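Dear support,

I submitted the protein below through the web form. The confirmation email said the job was done, but the results page showed an empty box. After a refresh the structure appeared. I'm attaching both so you can tell me whether what I see now is the final result or a partial one.
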Amino acid sequence: MATSISATGFKGGLCSSFHGSWGTTIVGEDYAMLAKSVPNHVRVGKPLRAQPMMKNINEGKGLFAPIVVVTRDIIGKKRFNQLRGKAIALHSQVITEFCKSIGADAKQRQGLIRLAKKNGERLGFLA
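What the results page shows now:
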């Protein structure tokens, strides 16, 4: 005995509670109300993106921080940052030469440079 399925139920004795069609649409007043409640266009603002900040967590702390701050105020921030950049580059070169003399690889050299930066932050050189 073969059973066929239709949208109104099963033929063969079983019933379904579904009595509509699969392609029903909203028409008339319901559609008009729905269309009025939905805006024609939605404005979406640009998401706020936080600027990455390279900031010292120990700013203003450390043994040399007061000297660094006073020097920066005297010579100006731009000139101070130029001098600081030259000092950091020179120190990195010294570390590189040291690593060459003892035979350390690039990974160890990078670790020493990171350690120097961390120590400079703790001592207040990067205040």
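Response: this is the final, complete result; the empty box was a page-load delay. The first helix runs from residue 29 to 37.
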